[in-house]
């Protein structure tokens, strides 16, 4: 999420089994892991630097994090065209998947989610793309498939699993929607659940409510707005569609 703080964090994800919280630093570009051992004690583990970028002129940038059922952590590296992986118990990130369609200037890979069959789904922030990366039996990355969406996607951002064959996703500024994506084979039907957001960047579901973090990114990146104080960040509750 955007912040004026030089030590700002871009995204967070938690693992239930190990009681660990992972956060991405937008200032330093690395991953921070914090493990909560009990209610009153905590252990901070040194940050995990990202592997060097493979795209000339761009530095690695973690954008979003997803945690699989077995505790494996997956990270989108927006400026390096790859998905990184942190195996459970490992002390370093490794490149898990790359694809030539992700190698472009500017922010590309963004939201990420893992569905029940172990497949990893990612979207593109600049561009129109929703991809599935199959997981091989040994945990490695398999075939990368671009899904056929029922409409074009724009400024796709945070994404979360919404069942065995569905995803919740937000589309950011100039679009401003919370979407439900239903997947059947290589096709994906995009249904708008709620629109009217100023700049949604992420979401989380708690019970029957989906909380959308509405934070216009223009206050970070648009020269006309960078000197202005952004409005308060808002977490907007939306009822789960039936």
3D structure, described in words:
This is SMP-30/Gluconolactonase/LRE-like region domain-containing protein. The structure is a single chain. This protein has 242 residues and is mostly beta strands. It has one domain (59-239): TolB, C-terminal domain (Neuraminidase), CATH 2.120.10. It is built from 1 helix and 20 strands. It has one helix at 218-221; strands spanning 9-15, 20-25, 31-38, 41-48, 62-67, 73-77, 82-86, 94-98, 109-114, 120-124, 130-135, 141-146, 148-149, 156-161, 166-171, 177-184, 187-194, 200-206, 209-214, 234-239. The strands form 5 sheets. The protein has a 5-stranded mixed β-sheet with strand order 13-17-16-15-14, with no helix packed on it. Strands 1-2-3-4 form a 4-stranded antiparallel β-sheet, with no helix packed on it. The chain is globular. The two termini are 29 Å apart.
């Amino acid at each position: 999420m955007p912040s004026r703080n030089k030590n700002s964090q871009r995204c967070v994800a938690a693992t239930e089994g190990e009681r660990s919280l992972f956060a991405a630093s937008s200032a330093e570009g690395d991953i921070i892991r914090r493990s909560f051992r009990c209610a009153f004690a905590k252990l901070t583990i040194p940050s995990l630097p990202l592997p060097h970028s493979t795209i000339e002129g761009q530095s690695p940038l973690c954008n979003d994090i997803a945690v699989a059922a077995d505790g494996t952590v997956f990270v989108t590296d927006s400026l390096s065209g790859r998905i990184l992986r942190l195996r459970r118990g490992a002390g370093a990130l490794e490149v898990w998947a790359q694809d030539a369609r992700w190698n472009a200037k500017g922010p590309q890979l963004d939201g990420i989610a893992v569905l029940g069959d172990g497949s990893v789904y990612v979207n593109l922030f600049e561009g129109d793309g929703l991809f599935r990366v199959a997981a091989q039996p040994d945990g490695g990355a398999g075939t990368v498939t671009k899904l056929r969406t029922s409409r074009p996607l724009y400024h796709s951002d945070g994404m979360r699993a919404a069942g065995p064959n569905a995803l919740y996703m937000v589309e950011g500024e100039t679009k401003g929607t919370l979407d439900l994506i239903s997947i059947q084979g290589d096709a994906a039907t995009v249904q708008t659940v709620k629109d009217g957001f100023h700049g949604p960047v992420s979401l989380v579901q708690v019970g029957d409510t989906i909380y959308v973090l509405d934070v216009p990114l223009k206050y970070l990146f648009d020269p006309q707005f960078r000197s202005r104080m952004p409005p308060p960040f808002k977490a907007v509750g939306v009822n789960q569609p039936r």
